[in-house]
């Protein structure tokens, strides 16, 4: 029995040494994490180094506002106030560095006081346009069976899920990481921070997209799913951290004319390992995917 185990172990190690560098690094990370939590023997029987899993997938990470949907939902819903001005003490919160979630919390309370209902939100959200062609692209990726698609967004779960359901994308998206939001018994939309982190100074306290991305990849590897490549599609400054966590085999599709692309272009080339692809239309993304 033990002879078989060691033979299998050396076979797996030999396979590991033949893998490309990115796969080796990811494998070693998961090995170390697993060893810390489970110990060597649990590691071997549960993980078997995870790098040797067949049929690796492509992980597609996509932002929500101005990437999946062609606008900023947090701004668009203010049209439900029918021109009524939001008080300056609330608007000032949006200008505070990293205070956007607190701003939205107070805005939702103000909108509730002005009789904006759940149905009003849904009516507004379902009229907002998606980026042309993005729905078709995501559906094709999902139907291929080669891709797993997740959303990383600083919006909120009610907005995201409402739009996904309306556009029949809720089965296409495997996981949504965003600020939780639900209506209380009085009918007021209440938003909470996704997390409270202080380790990443590049990201707001409520959501570090880079940490979420790395954690998700590690979790899926423990579950038996390996990603051979990550595609990140975004537009804003809060997508920079996730983009910097990508490897040399990965792609970051940064929307032309927006902050993500401007930030990445200003950085030293050594800081950005992934291939940067500016996009104006979904065709720009599709062309790269077809040629890679």
Automatic annotation (TrEMBL):
<dbReference type="GO" id="GO:0016791">
    <property type="term" value="F:phosphatase activity"/>
</dbReference>
<dbReference type="InterPro" id="IPR036412">
    <property type="entry name" value="HAD-like_sf"/>
</dbReference>
<dbReference type="InterPro" id="IPR006384">
    <property type="entry name" value="HAD_hydro_PyrdxlP_Pase-like"/>
</dbReference>
<keyword id="KW-0812">Transmembrane</keyword>
<feature type="binding site">
    <location>
        <position position="154"/>
    </location>
    <ligand>
        <name>substrate</name>
    </ligand>
</feature>
<keyword id="KW-0479">Metal-binding</keyword>
<feature type="active site" description="Proton donor">
    <location>
        <position position="65"/>
    </location>
</feature>
<keyword id="KW-1133">Transmembrane helix</keyword>
<feature type="active site" description="Nucleophile">
    <location>
        <position position="63"/>
    </location>
</feature>
<feature type="transmembrane region" description="Helical">
    <location>
        <begin position="28"/>
        <end position="49"/>
    </location>
</feature>
<dbReference type="InterPro" id="IPR016965">
    <property type="entry name" value="Pase_PHOSPHO-typ"/>
</dbReference>
<dbReference type="InterPro" id="IPR023214">
    <property type="entry name" value="HAD_sf"/>
</dbReference>
<feature type="binding site">
    <location>
        <position position="65"/>
    </location>
    <ligand>
        <name>Mg(2+)</name>
    </ligand>
</feature>
<comment type="similarity">
    <text>Belongs to the HAD-like hydrolase superfamily. PHOSPHO family.</text>
</comment>
<feature type="binding site">
    <location>
        <position position="74"/>
    </location>
    <ligand>
        <name>substrate</name>
    </ligand>
</feature>
<feature type="binding site">
    <location>
        <position position="235"/>
    </location>
    <ligand>
        <name>Mg(2+)</name>
    </ligand>
</feature>
<dbReference type="Pfam" id="PF06888">
    <property type="entry name" value="Put_Phosphatase"/>
</dbReference>
<protein>
    <recommendedName>
        <fullName>Pyridoxal phosphate phosphatase PHOSPHO2</fullName>
    </recommendedName>
</protein>
<keyword id="KW-0378">Hydrolase</keyword>
<dbReference type="GO" id="GO:0046872">
    <property type="term" value="F:metal ion binding"/>
</dbReference>
<feature type="binding site">
    <location>
        <position position="63"/>
    </location>
    <ligand>
        <name>Mg(2+)</name>
    </ligand>
</feature>
<keyword id="KW-0472">Membrane</keyword>
<keyword id="KW-0460">Magnesium</keyword>
């Amino acid at each position: 029995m033990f002879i078989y185990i060691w033979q299998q172990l050396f076979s797996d190690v030999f396979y590991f040494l033949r893998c490309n560098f990115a796969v080796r690094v990811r494998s070693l990370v998961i090995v170390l994490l697993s060893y810390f939590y489970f110990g060597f023997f649990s590691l071997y029987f549960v993980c078997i180094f995870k790098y040797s899993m067949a049929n690796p997938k492509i992980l597609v990470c996509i932002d929500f506002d101005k990437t999946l949907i062609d606008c900023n939902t947090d701004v668009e819903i203010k049209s439900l106030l029918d021109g009524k001005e939001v008080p300056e003490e609330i608007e000032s919160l949006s200008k505070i560095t990293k205070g956007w979630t607190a701003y939205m919390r107070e805005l939702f309370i103000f909108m509730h006081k002005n009789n904006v209902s759940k149905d009003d939100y849904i009516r507004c959200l379902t009229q907002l346009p998606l980026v042309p062609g993005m729905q078709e692209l995501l559906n094709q990726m999902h139907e291929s069976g080669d891709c797993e698609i997740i959303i990383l967004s600083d919006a909120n779960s009610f907005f995201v899920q409402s739009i996904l359901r309306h556009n029949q994308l809720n089965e296409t998206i495997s996981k949504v990481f965003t600020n939780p939001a639900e209506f209380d018994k009085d009918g007021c939309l209440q938003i909470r921070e996704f997390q409270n982190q202080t380790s990443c100074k590049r990201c707001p306290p409520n959501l570090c997209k880079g940490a979420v991305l790395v954690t998700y990849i590690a979790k899926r590897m423990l579950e038996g799913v390996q990603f051979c490549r990550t595609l990140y599609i975004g537009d804003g400054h809060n997508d920079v951290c996730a983009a910097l966590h990508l490897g040399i085999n990965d792609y970051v599709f940064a929307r032309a004319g927006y902050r993500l692309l401007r930030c990445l272009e200003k950085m030293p080339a050594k800081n950005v390992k992934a291939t940067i692809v500016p996009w104006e239309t979904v065709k720009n993304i599709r062309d790269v995917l077809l040629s890679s």
